[in-house]
Design goal:
Among the domains are: 70 residues, no CATH class; 146 residues, Serine Threonine Protein Phosphatase 5, Tetratricopeptide repeat; 99 residues, no CATH class. The protein has a two-stranded antiparallel ribbon. The longest helix has 24 residues. By secondary structure, the chain is mainly alpha-helical. This is TPR repeat-containing protein. InterPro entries: TPR-like_helical_dom_sf (IPR011990), TPR_rpt (IPR019734). It holds the Pfam family TPR_10.
């Protein structure tokens, strides 16, 4: 089937741009899923389409968009694992892109940026000769940038590429040009000028030229922190064990606190390199320097934390004792305890703990610190000793954190022990939710006797029927029919005794989802209908909507979208159904979750949404290289799309006075159909869709897509 429709060049240009826009993420997805042949085919299509654009600005835009999308440098890193022959095919495409960059970009900045991206890709693939070619051309382009600010920025970025390639000589040469460019920036832009000079100084430090960095610091205006350069010089010198330079640079720092911190780092070096006396003397000197400054104890606490790596515990504990602020003391001791716990030095750790225990809330602060840095063994040891410091809410938060940590570590018995210990220090809701999570964790670990025992500890609360929910969710995980029955029967029996409507509905929904997981359709439907009937008895509209929403959200949290869908359909509130559908669509569209889409598409009765879901299924199957399945769902979607009511193009108003396109209307479905048919090389079927289109502009656009 062919068409005699006359289509304007403008429509063709829009189609080309749209094809580029839609193909770039497809190509990226194919690379991420390691379908490299198809990905390369898509990338060739993109570059060929860019060449067809008549507008030079459009060509330039899409070329840069391609090289900036989805962090292409890291995206293409896995290509290094391909065979040399397969890599060569990609190199051929990359060289085609490189030539397009030189042909299509008018502005040297765009050329520089895109060639820099390509150089990084070549670098990751170990193609040093191609890195050099791309970098030479990028440098030529960068030097042609008329604005010194933009030119300096690009040159500095290119220096970094050479450094990553271990090409120090080339980096030095380019950095000299960057410095010349930075010095051409107007004095009326002191911040920009100083910022670039600082960046260049840091690069000199990385290249092992600290004296040049110090010289540059003198050119940076005082209000733009030249001291930060000297501090980096000191740290780098310590790292390279050039302590003479580190010590000599410190007087160039004007701020006393910064001088002291650098001195503290030098002190750590000597203390850990067989000269503890010298280290201790320098630490004492640093502490004395900040003693008379504003917020002196805060600065001293920071110095103590810096020196905590020195191993000089007695000196550190003495310094901490001289602090008068108990909060600072606790915080510093907690940090020190973490250092010694990580170093596995239990005797020293006990000394620190002895001091912490003397301070108000000291143990609680240490426990919280240990949890935050994931030092769970220390946290657990502390937890067994800790007394009830702090207010109820703070204590409750600590219990929850420690139980969650133990669950992550699969220390289920300890998690249960802590939960029992926490009994009086938790809200009723928190305690029962915690026990429910532990019971389910035991089930996931196939420890069924423990799971059932913990489930018996769970109680229903005013807000939720936790005991029934736990039994039903455990039943859903049961390995045998006998286990399932032994768990679901008590849940059913208890659900029948509940009086609160919201408890009844939630319990019945939980029981339904358990049966759904076992494939018992009849029982699933029965319990869902019971839940619906109970919810529909609620007279107050607002309360009924709240309870429907609560039940739907519970089922969604269990990933039981089809059950949630049926509950939502029974409620007349379209917003709830829309919310649910959007969540399901997100799972399908973003996570390519076919398992969710398949049952939902059969349950959906509204053609607008059913067509959208069918088309998403087709898209996913096409991405998975299953063209026959994709085609079957496209054909179904075409039939359903024709049932969508007029008008062909619709708008919806989500917010007052802000109409927006309805992407479930017939226009949107026909557009997706044509695009997906063409992608599967089914032009005849795409032409059949175009024949159904009413709007002239849409018909022209889709015909151009086919052509």
């Amino acid at each position: 089937m062919t068409s005699n429709i006359q289509i304007s060049p403008e429509v063709y240009q829009k189609v080309i741009a749209d094809k580029i826009n839609e193909t770039i993420p497809q190509a990226s997805y194919l690379v991420r899923t390691q379908i490299y042949d198809q990905a390369l085919k898509k990338y060739h299509q993109i570059i060929n389409h860019i060449a067809l654009l008549s507008n030079s600005e459009q060509r330039s835009y899409w070329l840069s968009y391609l090289l900036g999308y989805d962090d292409i440098v890291n995206l293409l890193k896995p290509l290094v694992k391909l065979t040399p022959q397969e890599q060569d095919r990609w190199i051929e495409w990359l060289e085609q892109v490189q030539q397009s960059v030189l042909n299509f970009h008018e502005y040297p900045r765009a050329i520089t940026q895109d060639l820099k991206q390509l150089a990084k890709v070549y670098q990751n693939l170990g193609r040093s000769e191609l890195v050099e070619i791309a970098m030479q051309k990028a440098t030529t382009a960068a030097l042609q940038i008329p604005d010194p600010t933009t030119r300096t920025e690009q040159l500095i970025q290119l220096v970094s590429v050479w450094l990553e390639s271990q090409q120090k000589a080339k980096a030095q040469e380019l950095l000299t040009q960057a410095l010349t460019s930075a010095e051409q920036i107007s004095n009326e832009e002191p911040y920009t000028r100083s910022n670039f000079l600082s960046s260049i100084a840091i690069l000199y430090i990385q290249m092992g030229e600290p004296k040049r960095a110090i010289a540059l610091a003198e050119k940076v205006a005082n209000e733009y922190s030249p001291e930060s350069i000297i501090i980096e010089v000191v740290r780098d010198a310590i790292k390279r064990e050039d302590l003479h330079l580190a010590q000599a640079a410190i007087p160039k720092i004007q701020t006393v606190e910064f001088q002291a911190f650098c001195l503290g780092e030098i002190a750590v070096y000597w203390a850990t390199h067989n000269q503890p006396r010298l280290g201790n003397r320098l630490f004492a000197q640093a502490m004395k320097q900040v003693a008379k400054r504003e917020a002196a104890e805060s600065h001293q606490a920071n110095l103590i934390q810096t020196y905590s790596k020195s191993g000089q515990l007695t000196i550190l504990l003495n310094a901490i004792q001289r602090l008068t602020n108990d909060g600072l003391k606790s915080s510093v001791l907690a940090s020190l305890a973490i250092v010694y716990a990580q170093a596995k030095q239990p005797q020293q750790l006990q000394q620190i703990l002895a001091q912490i225990q003397r301070l108000k809330d000291g143990e609680a602060i240490l426990l919280s610190t240990a949890i935050n840095v994931q030092e769970y063994n220390l946290a657990i040891a502390l937890f067994k000793k800790i007394k009830n410091h702090g207010n109820f809410v703070y204590q409750s938060g600590l219990y929850q954190q420690i139980v969650q940590a133990l669950l992550r570590l699969q220390n289920l018995d300890q998690a249960l022990e802590v939960a029992k210990q926490a009994n009086g220090d938790l809200w009723t809701e928190e305690r029962n939710l915690m026990l429910k999570e532990i019971a389910l964790a035991y089930a996931d670990n196939q420890q069924w006797s423990q799971a059932i025992a913990v489930a018996k500890l769970v109680k229903n609360t005013l807000l939720k029927p936790y005991q029934v929910l736990t039994q039903a969710e455990l039943a859903a995980k049961a390995p045998t029919i006998a286990e399932f029955t032994s768990l679901i029967q008590p849940a059913i029996a208890q659900a029948q005794t509940l009086t609160a409507i919201e408890h009844q509905a939630l319990s019945l929904a939980a029981i339904a989802q358990a049966y759904l997981r076992t494939g018992e359709t009849e029982q699933t439907e029965s319990f869902l209908q019971q839940a619906i009937q109970i919810l529909q008895q609620v007279q107050d509209d607002e309360n009924r909507s709240r309870l429907f929403a609560q039940t739907v959200e519970y089922l969604m949290s269990q990933k039981q979208y089809i059950a949630a869908f049926k509950i939502a359909q029974a409620h007349s509130n379209s917003q709830l159904l829309e919310y649910l559908y959007n969540t399901i669509y997100y799972e399908i569209n973003v996570n390519n979750n076919i398992e969710i889409a398949l049952p939902v598409v059969e349950a959906e009765s509204l053609p607008d949404r059913q067509a959208t879901t069918l088309l998403e299924l087709a898209r996913i199957y096409a991405l998975q290289q299953r063209p026959q399945d994709a085609l079957a769902y496209l054909d179904r979607a075409f039939v359903v799309a024709q049932q969508i009511a007029d008008p062909e193009s619709r708008t919806i108003t989500r917010y007052e006075n802000s109409p927006e396109p309805d992407y479930n209307d017939r226009r949107s479905q026909y557009t997706r159909l044509v695009k997906q048919y063409v992608a599967l090389e089914q032009q005849e079927k795409a032409q059949q869709v175009v024949a159904k289109v009413q709007e002239t502009s849409l018909r022209d656009y889709l015909q151009a897509w086919i052509n």
